[in-house]
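Journal club prep — side note

Before the paper discussion, L.F. wants everyone to see what a predicted structure for a comparable chain looks like in token form. Sequence:
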Amino acid sequence: MSVQPEYALIVAGGKGTRMKASLPKQFLEIKGRPVLMHTIDAFYRYSETMQVILVLPEEDRPTWEALCQQHAFTRPLQIVAGGASRFQSVQNGLRHIQGAGLVAIHDGVRPLISEDIIAASFRLAAVHGSAVAAVRLKDSIRVTDQHHTRAVDRALYRLIQTPQTFRIDLIQQAYALPEDATLTDDASVAERAGHTISLFEGSYDNLKITTPEDLIVAEALLNARQ
């Protein structure tokens, strides 16, 4: 079987509202380097030859360029301007990919993604057309409305992560449809377009930096790896 071209589309448009920080969360530091640099490095550890597209709000580009200079960060990147929503940002990034292959769409604020998970996502997407990282729930869950709650079987549910990796033609076709604000991830967009979503085992380490305690946990995990 011929090897297909592999792309990483890293979406970094967070504003850090829940982080209570003036700096966007992708630029906050873990172990002396911005979160986003850790994320990008993970994909280059997986493959030095893959093509990485970074989707960044236009107004954040000067900050990113200054950080790259400050940290001597010279990874080759294609930088694409983000849109008004995550959907539009991914759409913009996908427009810069030509031809066949596979693309891993990943949150810029998931810096602990491992090379093994990236490799698994590409390997499975090559077979199934999609491969979405997910983990089982650890806690009990309940459904609630205004008046009642009821327990549900947590074994039926998964927490969805990134990377979400797809055959390029499949995900480009899905993102050519009109935006729907209720679809919060790429798997939902692909599913709306009629595609079956294949899940694979992600990692509890692969946390998304959202709140201040996430930075503490991420730093501890990075220290444990070293």
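L.F.'s comment for the group: Helices lie at 35-46, 61-70, 86-94, 115-128, 168-175, 186-192, 212-225. Keep this in mind when we get to the figures.
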